[in-house]
Backbone:
């Protein structure tokens, strides 16, 4: 959890209101440098030691790095946004969840209790509504889907793009997947390797959402296979227990425990998976027993989604580091196998012996070069790949290439991390890091008042509540209406001002460091280090009370000043 930020200056900055957007600037700077590092030091090693063959992951292209892309053929102008991958069995609510996020239907949408989504659908922002065939998506040079060609025509016929104008899709790209089959249905041949396609998207996703239905928690063989290929991406996985409003509180407790038990047997990570519980679509809850819990869970999930664009640069660095470590280990393996081969006679016999003894070969390489066990490929799949090759054709180990990879990991990446914003940055150094770049849109959060049996104040009475109505009255409602435009002008992400943006606003007031610390502690009521609109209003009210009226900062807020949603 974020705490009160360290105030680097006691007096406000005089920067103009048109300050550059930290999100777009961060992504632009980082992606440009990552692309340069990959092309210079990583790509040659991948090509030399056949990384694309052994890991079934194509060599990366510029389009996978570029911060800004012009999709000329489809008349799209977009940014390299975070991707959210949704995976789950059929009829768990994946497509309904996407519709809820977007606030409307989308082209190609199919919803029903039977397996209706029979294809991979990528939802992208665009000026007009239409579906784009998978073959067209996979061959376009400006779209990051060229690697999907390897899965063949059978897959591409079940892959499509759904283009529509959307404020959500301006910030994230959503990937809907076919419902995973269970029981006898999972024996049906899809015509392509489903788990390998999921693995391809998972490697490129910033967030992976696994959805489960409260009424069917069984993890089928195909779902287990899909979860298995997510190994190495545990930090990106979030789970949703959907349709939880259809069971009572006691049943929910048992179902939640059963789901955690099933996930514990399936996911090898020692950490407990984060499971969001609720009903993630626009319809009102069928059972209001747990409405407060569901509302809080949904807010947490939406906040998780809202901060994705802000974490995009760090995610790009993290994914490249993981890839470099695997490339380095592969180079050592291929170099070692090459060095063990005889010069003239008995090459096939020696190759077969090395493959049969691969576990010991891995142990030898691990100890000799002090590598991490987690960086080694899966023995079974790697052995199968080796049987299709000739060790005599392998390249020898190049220390120059290894040194280049080490330089990226130990020098270039840490230097790049220094370019990211941190709490020690002053407003001036932060602006210097970000540069001047176009603003990037935010992830809007669905309105949920009516869904949880509540009625928005604006709908019940446009003039608010009377002071006698203590449960709903807020003394700062007029200020909230007046400050709405200024809050939006600051560029909230998913309805929240980042710690840095909120800090800059308060520093500009010219109050002392101690005063700002007190105001922050009173205003950040949920202690998440972010300001929503209501917390921003309270902070501005306290600043105004000190500056304009000379009042002391209270030890605690009066009840009438605390927003009703936070009491």
Residues:
């Amino acid at each position: 959890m974020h705490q009160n930020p360290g105030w680097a200056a006691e007096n406000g900055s005089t920067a103009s209101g048109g300050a550059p957007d930290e999100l777009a600037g961060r992504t632009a700077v980082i992606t440009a440098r990552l692309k340069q590092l990959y092309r210079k030091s990583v790509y040659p090693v991948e090509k030399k030691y056949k990384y694309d063959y052994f890991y079934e992951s194509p060599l990366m292209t510029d389009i996978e790095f570029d911060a800004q892309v012009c999709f000329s053929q489809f008349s799209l102008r977009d940014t390299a946004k975070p991707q959210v991958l949704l995976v789950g069995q059929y009829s768990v609510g994946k497509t309904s969840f996407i519709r809820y996020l977007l606030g409307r239907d989308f082209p190609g949408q199919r919803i029903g209790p039977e397996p209706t989504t029979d294809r991979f659908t990528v939802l992208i922002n665009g000026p007009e509504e239409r579906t784009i065939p998978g073959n067209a998506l996979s061959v376009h040079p400006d779209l990051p889907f060229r690697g999907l060609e390897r899965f063949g025509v059978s897959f591409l016929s079940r892959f499509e793009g759904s283009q529509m104008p959307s404020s959500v899709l301006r910030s994230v790209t959503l990937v809907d997947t076919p419902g995973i089959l269970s029981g006898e249905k999972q024996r049906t041949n899809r015509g392509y390797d489903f788990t390998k396609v999921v693995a391809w998207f998972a490697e490129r996703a910033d967030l992976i959402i696994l959805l489960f239905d409260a009424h069917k928690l069984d993890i089928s063989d195909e779902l287990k296979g899909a979860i298995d290929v997510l190994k190495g991406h545990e930090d990106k996985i979030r789970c949703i227990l959907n349709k939880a409003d259809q069971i009572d509180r006691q049943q929910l407790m048992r179902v939640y425990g059963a789901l955690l038990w099933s996930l514990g047997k399936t996911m090898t990570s020692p950490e407990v998976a984060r499971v969001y519980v609720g009903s993630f679509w626009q319809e009102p809850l069928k059972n209001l027993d747990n409405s407060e819990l569901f509302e809080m869970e949904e807010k947490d999930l939406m906040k998780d989604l809202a901060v994705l664009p802000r974490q995009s640069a760090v995610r790009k660095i993290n994914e490249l580091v993981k890839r470099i470590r695997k490339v380095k280990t592969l180079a050592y393996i291929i170099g070692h196998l090459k060095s063990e081969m005889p010069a003239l006679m008995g090459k096939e016999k020696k190759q077969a012996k090395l493959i049969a003894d691969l576990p010991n070969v891995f142990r030898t390489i691990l100890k000799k070069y002090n590598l991490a066990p987690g960086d080694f490929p899966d023995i079974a799949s790697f052995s199968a790949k080796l049987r299709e090759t000739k060790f005599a054709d392998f390249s020898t180990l190049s220390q120059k290439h290894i040194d280049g990879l080490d330089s990226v990991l130990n020098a270039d990446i840490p230097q790049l991390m220094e370019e990211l914003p941190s709490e020690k940055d002053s407003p001036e150094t932060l602006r210097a890091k970000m540069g001047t770049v176009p603003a990037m849109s935010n992830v809007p959060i669905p309105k949920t008042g009516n869904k949880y049996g509540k009625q928005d104040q604006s709908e019940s009475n446009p003039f608010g509540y009377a002071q006698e109505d203590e449960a709903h009255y807020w003394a700062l409602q007029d200020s909230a209406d007046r400050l709405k435009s200024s809050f939006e002008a600051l560029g909230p992400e998913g309805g929240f001002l980042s710690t840095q943006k909120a800090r800059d606003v308060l520093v500009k007031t010219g109050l002392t460091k101690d005063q700002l610390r007190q105001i922050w502690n009173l205003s950040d009521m949920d202690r998440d280090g972010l300001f929503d609109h209501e917390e921003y209003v309270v902070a501005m009210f306290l600043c105004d009370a000190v500056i304009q009226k000379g009042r002391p900062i209270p030890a605690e807020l009066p009840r009438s000043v605390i927003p009703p949603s936070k009491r």
Notes: The CA atoms of residues 355 and 383 lie 6 Å apart. The chain has 20 helices and ten strands.
